[in-house]
């Protein structure tokens, strides 16, 4: 159902803003329109909000959104929200999805021996707060090209060890560079130079 700038897909209990490309719960529709679509007049905002509120089964608040279950991983990518990201990581034990550079490190410290699968396609409905978790989409719907999907059975402890080893190697490299740079500097020795001064430099 189209409720410009929103659309309601019958399989989901919220509306999606087609312009902003993320979802919105019913009681935040007026503020979303006011903050992101200032061309929509107050009377029209009120009418849109009433239409959304009257949708059967619609979620009204962030509190209600916490009980929303993510769609199955085999679900095709959801239209109208931001397109899938291809750099997701899936915990092979609990199915938790994160993206590289997100809170994977924090999760890894909490769960010490979990294997992860990389190259997961993932989306999310909301950019912040409840409902902003990533979920897998399109599992098994296409054959990835060679090298496009990396399946990593690396435990968290192995990953942390690898990171520490890389940091140690960088430290050793920097230390060696500092030492070599110090050897190239001229050394000051006592004696008389051609100018009659007390100190000269030897290269």
Automatic annotation (TrEMBL):
Pfam families: OrsD
InterPro entries registered for this protein in UniProt: OrsD
Highest taxon of source: Eukaryota
Stretches the record annotates as Disordered: 182-203
The protein, known as: C2H2-type domain-containing protein
């Amino acid at each position: 159902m189209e409720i410009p700038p929103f659309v309601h897909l019958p399989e989901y209990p919220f509306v999606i803003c087609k312009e902003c490309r993320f979802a919105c719960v019913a009681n935040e529709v007026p503020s979303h329109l006011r903050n992101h679509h200032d061309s929509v007049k107050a009377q029209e905002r009120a009418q849109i909000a009433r239409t959304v509120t009257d949708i059967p089964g619609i979620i009204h608040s962030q509190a209600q959104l916490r009980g929303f279950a993510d769609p199955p991983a085999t679900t095709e990518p959801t239209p109208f929200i931001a397109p899938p990201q291809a750099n997701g990581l899936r915990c092979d034990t609990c199915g938790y999805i994160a993206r590289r550079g997100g809170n994977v490190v924090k999760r890894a410290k909490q769960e010490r021996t979990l294997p992860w699968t990389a190259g997961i396609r993932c989306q999310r409905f909301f950019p912040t707060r409840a409902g902003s978790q990533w979920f897998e989409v399109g599992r098994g719907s296409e054959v990835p090209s060679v090298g496009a999907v990396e399946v990593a059975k690396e435990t968290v402890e192995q990953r942390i060890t690898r990171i520490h080893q890389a940091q140690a190697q960088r430290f050793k490299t920097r230390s060696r560079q500092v030492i070599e740079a110090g050897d190239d500097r001229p050394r000051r020795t006592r004696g008389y130079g051609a100018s009659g001064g007390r100190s000269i430099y030897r290269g």
